[in-house]
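A student in our group prepared the protein record below, which I am reviewing. Thanks in advance; the entry in question is below.
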Amino acid sequence: MKIGQISEMTGLSTHTIRYYEKQGLINAAAKDSSGHRDYGPDDIELLNWVDCLKNSGMSLALIRRYSDAVRSGDQPTQQEILSLHLQQLRLKQQDIHHYIEVTEKKLRRFSP
């Protein structure tokens, strides 16, 4: 698939896809006979996962390490990285829950 199709499928801009590729977060796409990037299903899956990790707060350096582990089949490293990330997400979730409670309490002050 061409980069424009991948962009439409994932909601990511072509610039972002190229950036992820340049940063080594996804594989460099194969080129077709015209020199256009040609992505496969595995590329799309990893691209979606990279975007999810980024949006959930994982650093690009750690995403690169995770992507390298995926490409090399290093499941213990993948599991370690995801387990640590999940712990961090759960802590953030607790923090957000607290912030919601505090904000709701403040808003109740405005109610008669």
About this structure: The radius of gyration is 19 Å.
